[in-house]
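We close this part of the discussion by returning to an individual protein. In the encoding step, the backbone of a single protein was reduced to a row of integers, each denoting a local shape. The sequence in question and its structure tokens are set out directly beneath this paragraph.
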Amino acid sequence: MSGVELRALTTGYGSEPVLQDVSMSIAEGCRFGIVGPNGAGKTTLLRAIAGQLKPESGSIQVAGCAPGSFSTRRFAQRVAFAPQLVHLDLSLTVRQVVQLGRAPHRGWVRPFTKEDDLIVRQTLDDVGLLSAANRPVGELSGGQRRRVVLARAMAQQPDLLLLDEPTAHLDLRHEVALFATLDRLRVERSLTIVMTLHDLSQASAQCDQLTLIDQGRVVAAGKPADVLNPETIRQVYGVRVQVLHSPDHNRSVIVPVGSESVDDSGASPVS
């Protein structure tokens, strides 16, 4: 089981909460997207699900249990988090970094098994870094380092994979390949994927369900075609858009057509 349930969650980093009264339900095997403006609380929400932030009020359940009820090792076997910003030891090779993803399953002292090696090799191949396996991370581009972080999380073989802006710094080819790999893993292992995305068209194409948050609160939730409507986008982003739907309404392309100046009382077009 890898579903997630948040009930009236309020949490943050100090006296001022970042998320306020957030509720959502994420089904097992779902591709779930979290969207919203910069500073809306998307990364904070992922960190809370990852067990890095404790609720000030409300609750979080992963697979029916609070994150704190798992041992650290057991939780890492079930949940993997690939943050957008991460420090990597630049002297390590790509293979060595990705091998760290196997630690929850083998501990820190047990030698690598043949199975571990096969998983690391397959994961490196999945993200297009097998040929760079022995290169130091310090020699890689930003996009390649991003794929190393994703590969480390994928090598954990979790039930729940949390991805903060997974396509940041990736070119189009690697974006397409990453989403194809994630979808294959989701089907093969009933993997639940929760990711923050800034590209609304991409979120529509790659997610079964979306939650749109702004200023730490849920503004809209549901199927992408229902969440990403012109009026809601205008209110949250201050941008007028045209939403172009596919014939089956399973994906949408969001096209900006003008900005707006938004004040506390509403929105007014800028001519």
